[in-house]
Amino acid sequence: MSIRAYKWAKEQELPGVPKAVLIYLGDRFNDVYGYAWPSMARIARDTGWHQRTVAKAIRYLKETGLVETRRQYYLRDHSLGPNRYYLPDIGPVPPEGAKFPIKGDFDNQGEWDSDLDDDYWD
After folding, report:
1. Which residues contact 99 (CB under 8 A, 6 or more apart)?
2. Where are the beta strands (DSSP E) in the chain?
3. Among 30-39, 47-56, 91-100, the range of highest mean pLDDT
4. DSSP at 66
5. Buried-most residue among 15, 24, 57, 117 (CB within 10 A)?
6. Number of domains in the chain
7. Domain limits at 25?
8. What is the reported pTM?
């Protein structure tokens, strides 16, 4: 959680759903990494809105320049992962078209398992 991103999001003058989604992203923002990465399903579940409503709010936030997204994908099977959500007013944003590999996954105990052999996934 980033207090700075959360406070910044609360100060924005926006309609209800986009503002709530922005506040949620601010709350989930990681200052160390410089982005938030909840899935659309997670945002919908935590806010109580349908995924289409959340997607529409995120499109609105992108159009207003308050949020930038970049894609992540899993190296284990090359499937798409959750977006990275950047807040340009809070920190730097990678160039458009950047994709980010996720080199691990959570195991059954909830621990991060990143002991993957890069050559295995090529």
Report:
1. 70, 71, 72, 73
2. 68-74, 84-86, 99-102, 105-106, 112-113
3. 47-56
4. S
5. 57
6. 1
7. 3-121
8. 0.77
